[in-house]
């Protein structure tokens, strides 16, 4: 199996089949707020299927950047879920001992100063 970029317009060829992709820059905090209808925020997600072993966050908690808000376990390895920036916990979507899928939303934050 091989792939290559055919042209400079986003065409990628995988096993002789062309696929068009479009790279889109991430939304600015202001644009994200406009789409969400509220304060700019961040959603912390599970990096892989796992089990939540600790949930340290509660709705309304003030958090600092890099603060551990939950701990997940997968394949007998613990993974800390940390706040991406300072802010306030908007919603906690996971409970202790809950099975989660990779990419599943765990905690929503309102980002400070955005």
Topology:
Layout: E1 3-5, E2 11-14, E3 17-20, H1 29-36, E4 41-45, E5 50-55, E6 62-63, E7 68-74, E8 77-82, E9 87-92, E10 99-100, E11 105-111
Antiparallel strand pairs: 1-2, 2-3, 4-11, 5-7, 5-10, 6-9, 7-8, 9-11
Please, could you describe this protein's structure?
- By secondary structure, the protein is mainly beta.
- The chain has two domains: 31 residues, no CATH class; 73 residues, Beta Barrel (OB fold (Dihydrolipoamide Acetyltransferase, E2P)), CATH 2.40.50.100.
- It contains one helix and eleven strands, in the order E-E-E-H-E-E-E-E-E-E-E-E.
- The longest helix has 8 residues.
- The protein starts with a strand and ends with a strand.
- The N terminus is likely disordered.
Tell me briefly what this model is:
The protein has 114 residues and is mainly beta. It is built from 1 helix and 11 strands.
């Amino acid at each position: 199996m091989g792939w290559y970029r055919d042209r400079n317009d986003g065409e990628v060829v995988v096993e002789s089949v062309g696929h068009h992709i479009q790279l889109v820059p991430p939304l600015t905090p202001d644009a994200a707020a406009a789409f969400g209808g509220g304060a700019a925020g961040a959603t912390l997600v599970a990096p892989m299927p796992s089990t939540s072993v600790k949930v340290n966050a509660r709705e309304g908690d003030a958090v600092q950047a890099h603060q551990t808000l939950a701990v997940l376990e997968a394949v007998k390895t613990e993974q800390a879920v940390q706040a991406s920036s300072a802010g306030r916990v908007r919603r906690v979507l996971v409970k202790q001992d809950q099975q989660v899928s990779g990419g599943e939303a765990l905690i929503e934050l309102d980002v400070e100063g955005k």
